[in-house]
Structure formats: C-alpha cells, structure tokens
Write a structure and sequence with these properties.
Structural class: mainly alpha
Strand order of the largest sheet: 1-2
Shape: globular
Largest sheet: 2 strands, antiparallel
Number of strands: 2
Distance between the termini: 12 Å
Number of domains: 1
Radius of gyration: 20 Å
Length: 364
C-alpha cells in the first residue's frame, strides 16, 4: 500500500505540473507553483500517514467525537456573515477556511470524520443497529446537520458523497436494507428540489441527459472527451496537452484525469486504473482480515471513500455521470484532499498492522 500510494502521489504531482505549467493566477504567479504546493501537501500528509500507521487505530474510539466536533465547527465558519476575511467566496461558494499555514476545505475533512465517527458508534452499538429508534436514528440526528452544512456551502456533490460513505459504514455494520430504502424514499424529493433550485445543477443534469445541448456544462464534457481521445495510445507528451490552454477549466483538479489521458495516453490511464484498483483491493483485504468490528468498519469506510471518489471523478471525465466537483484522490490539485487521503491511508495501514501483530505469520 505504501508503494501504490507513493506512486499515485508522485504521478499526481507530475500531472499537476503538466496541467498547470502554462496557467497564470490572478496574482501573476505561474501555475507551475501549484505542483510545489501539492508537494508540500504531500509531505504534510505523508507525515500524518506515517504517524497514524504506527498508532493503534483503537485510539480513534476516543478521538471520533472531538474530530467530528472540530469538523462541524470548521463547516460552520464559511456560513457565518462575519468570517469573509478567513473564508472568502471563490467561484460563488465559500468552501475554504484560511488557518494561516494552510487553507483547508472542511468538507474534505468531513469525509474522514464521518467515516471514523460512524465506524466508532456502529462498532459500539452492534446488534442495536438493526433497530431504527436505538440504532439508525441517533446517527441521523448527528449526520443530518453535518451534511446540511456541506450542502449550504453550497456543495451538493460532496454532501451526497459523505452521505453514501456514512451509509456504506452502517450497511457493513449490519443496518437493515429496509431502513435505507425508507431513507431513500424520504430523501428523493429533497434531492430533486436541491437540483431544481440551482440553475447550474439543473444544467449539469440536463447536459448529461442531452449531451448535444450547447451549454457551458456540455462544453466542459466535450473538451474532456476531446482531450482523452487526443491522447490515443501513448499520449501527446508530458506538458504538451492543449486542453489546459483555456479549453478545459480546472484541468489540474476537477478534470485532471482528462489531462492524464491527453498527455499520457491510454497506457497512462490504464496505469492509474490498475494502481487505484490495487489500492481498493488491498483496502478490502485489510477489512476482511480485521481483528474487530472497529477495524473492519474503518477499513471499509476509508476504502469506499477513496474508491468511490475515483469512480465519480473518472465518471465525470468520461461523461457517464453528471458533472460534480469530486477530485481524484492523491492526484488532483488540492492540499486538503491530498492530506486527508494520505491521513486516511495511514489509518487503513494501522488496521492492517494490527492484524499482522496478532497473526504475524498470516496473509494480512
């Protein structure tokens, strides 16, 4: 897992450099500095990953509530009217908090916080989870406000992702499928209303249903597909992609998979798919051999967190799902996403090390 993650991170820094090498920021800085920032994030996240990997994962039982509380507080800051100095509006949304040394996106931290908290409480409840009143309802009381804060940023795609992560942990812990179906029926109209109330969300869905419509959203999708197609087998060459020249927005973050496809070709895309597939296989393997319910749920939730983000990002780039703002783990530009993904990987490795300490001659 260390090797796979390291290769993905290094590959990601190179891809960010290639995708941003000709970009100029509003302050006049050359976009290639993005790669340096990404490398700094990799160092910070790597140190956290090493620390968490060497730590007993059972400590997260005590840290789950404080972590979720800090996350909720950070999610609340952008919504306050007097916090524009540390949480300015960027592209019509307030999703970042300036902490001085680091500008953090709290919704990225929310993914890991929700997984850790759900794993802790689900492992504690055990069979009680099959009862709605004493099992699932307490989770909803806490999770609905957290997810609501993410939605109000606004960031609907991240709110949906966090919801799916929580449900994945609860499903693994033994919650009833009937309860999930009831929640789906109740949440369906809310999701429809959330899409209909925002013109850009509705445009993304309509573009997905009718790709030929001449809209800004369809233009992004078409440019993404054009870039991937231009890469053919071996790619056009590192840093030689054309989509980053104003044709494809956020070629270094939201559409970095398209950049990889254009510059590295089919072989580069295949290598990325194999690396992420290996990561997910290792994650579920660790979950299967975990020594207790907490380890099993942590490993499952973190693996789903990484794997589902990959599927959503690639799905958007290939126009098989409506456009979202989900980044490609370890690779897309964004220190918050990178640090959280590496920290989560450290926790996942800790679960695997716990099994190895118990069965030193085993296969885990």
């Amino acid at each position: 897992m260390f090797v796979v993650t390291s290769v993905l991170v290094v590959f990601g820094i190179a891809a960010v450099y290639g995708a941003s090498s000709l970009v100029t920021t509003a302050g006049g800085q050359v976009g290639a500095s993005f790669a340096l920032r990404q490398a700094i994030g990799a160092v910070v996240g790597g140190l956290l990953a090493i620390a968490f990997a060497r730590m007993d994962y059972h400590r997260w039982r005590r840290w789950a509530w404080p972590l979720l509380g800090v996350t909720g507080f950070l999610l609340l800051i952008p919504l306050l009217p007097f916090t524009h100095a540390i949480s300015p509006s960027i592209n019509g949304a307030r999703r970042w908090v300036n902490l001085g040394l680091l500008t953090l996106q709290p919704s990225e931290l929310a993914k890991l916080s929700v997984v850790v908290w759900c794993a802790m409480l689900a492992a504690k409840k055990g069979e009680q989870l099959r009862d709605f009143k004493h099992g699932l309802l307490p989770f909803l009381v806490i999770l609905v406000p957290v997810i609501g804060l993410i939605f109000l940023e606004p960031h609907l795609s991240m709110a949906l992702l966090v919801t799916i992560l929580a449900l994945s942990v609860l499903f693994t812990a033994g919650a009833r499928i009937g309860h999930f179906l009831a929640l789906g029926v109740a949440g369906g109209p809310l999701l429809f209303g959330a899409i209909a109330m925002a013109q850009y969300r509705l445009a993304r869905v309509l573009t997905f249903l009718n790709p030929g419509a001449p809209t800004e959203a369809s233009s992004q999708v078409q440019q993404s597909l054009t870039g991937i197609g231009a890469g053919q087998l071996l790619g056009v060459g590192f840093g030689q992609g054309q989509q980053k020249l104003g044709y494809l927005p956020y070629a270094y973050s939201d559409f970095i998979f398209s950049t990889i496809g254009e510059e590295w070709g089919f072989l580069g895309v295949l290598a990325i798919a194999l690396l992420f597939g290996t990561f997910v296989w290792l994650g579920f393997r660790i979950a299967r051999h975990a020594t207790d319910p907490l380890g099993q749920l942590l490993a499952t939730g973190i693996t789903v967190m990484i794997g589902l983000s990959v599927v959503l990002h690639i799905g958007v780039s290939l126009a098989v799902i409506p456009a979202t703002g989900v980044t490609l783990p370890f690779m897309s530009y964004g220190r918050s996403s990178l640090i959280v993904a590496l920290a989560a990987t450290g926790i996942l490795a800790s679960v695997g090390r716990g099994e190895r300490r118990r069965h030193p001659r085993g296969n885990a």
